[in-house]
Every structure is written in C-alpha cells, then in structure tokens.
Amino acid sequence: MNERAWERAGAASGLVAAVLLLASLFLNPTAPTGDEPVLTFFYVAGNRATVVLAALLATLAAVVFLWFVGHLRHLLQRAEGGAEAFSPVVFAAGVVLSTMTMLSMLPVTALASMSRDISTASGSAVFVLSELHRLALGPLGLLVALFAATTGAAMVRREVLGPWVGWFGFAVAAIGLIAGVTAFYASGPFVTIAAMVTGIVFAVWIGDAAVLMLYRPEVDRVEVPGTAFAH
C-alpha cells in the first residue's frame, strides 16, 4: 500500500476503537453508580453476559487504539521533522492508557466468572475486585487528560488536523483531569458518572479525528507547523 492507504488504515483504526468504546460504555446503562461492592457484584451476577461483552469490547477498543496511537506518532514525527516535540509523549500516554484500560477490565471479568456460583463467592474477594475496578478510574482519567492535552496541543499547532479539533481535545483533557482527580478523593455516584462522561467525550473526540483523517489524509497537507521549542 502507498502512504495514503496506510494513513487511511491508521485513521480507520481510531474510528473502530471509538465505536467499540462507545458500545462498551452504553451496554451497561443501569450499572450501580455507587461504590458498594455487594451491589456491583449482584449487578454483575444478574447481567453476566452483558458485563462480559462490555469488557470484551473495551479490551478490543484498547487493542485497536494502539494502532491509532502508532499512526499518530508517525504523523507527528513527520510533521515535527525529527524535533520529537509532542510525538513521544502522545505515544507513551496512548500506550499506557490502552494498557491501563485492558487491566481495568480484569477485575470485573473476574467478578463475572465468580458470579457463576454465588454460593462460593468470597466476600473479601468481591470487595477487592470491585475496589480495584473502581480505583482504576482515577489513573484512567489522568491518562486521558495527558493524551488529550498533548495531542490537542499538536493539533492546535497544526501538526495534525486543525486547531478546532485540538481545542476539543483540551476540553476532553479538562474533563478527564476532573474525573481522575475526583476518583482519588471522592466516592459514590459522581465518580462513576464522571468516568462515564469522560469515556464518552474521549470516544467522540477520537472518532471525529479519525473521520477527518479518513476524509483528508495528512500526507495531502502542505502546511508546515512552526518551531515547537524556542532556541
């Protein structure tokens, strides 16, 4: 394939990741919003098939997102002419975000497996797994903030796409930052709802960026960004 075809494949991976993430988020609209492990466990037990499917879709979204992150690194490296301004941070943040997303699915998947026979479920194990899943929301929000902020900055500088997509990224970063920090200090419905909102706006932003990249591959752009760092 030529460069344009490879770019469209990379952009398509971002769109697929966004769709998979949105599907995962909307599969469990009635999940408990509190931080009570018992409620979480009985919800998982009563909706095992849906919970496992949502976890699978989220994991697939994280895997496909890795391709999109690699695609972004390629585009930014080319636009930065080897200056390595934003591309290393975007790449690192994207890889860690994807990894953390996959890891955060393991506790809830374990709960689903455990719920096959409620009579053998250990109360301490249920508490630990539920808390691990909930506590993962803090790092995930902060990683979304880092990825969206650095990618948004590159977009504002026209290294990829355009400023309005970058400003959208800054808004996503602000929401992720609020959700991430709140998860470390608060509990209850607000934390879960904030995490849900973060996931939705992140997926919409990635999907919008991917569609624009599909419509106009970056190889067709002729604008050259300014200097990233002053000497």
From TrEMBL:
Ordered alphabetically, the record's keywords are: Membrane, Transmembrane, Transmembrane helix
Q: Looking at the keywords, is Transmembrane present?
A: yes
Residue ranges crossing the lipid bilayer per the database entry: 51-69, 89-112, 132-152, 164-187, 193-215
Protein name in the entry: DUF4386 family protein
Taxonomic source organism: Saccharopolyspora elongata
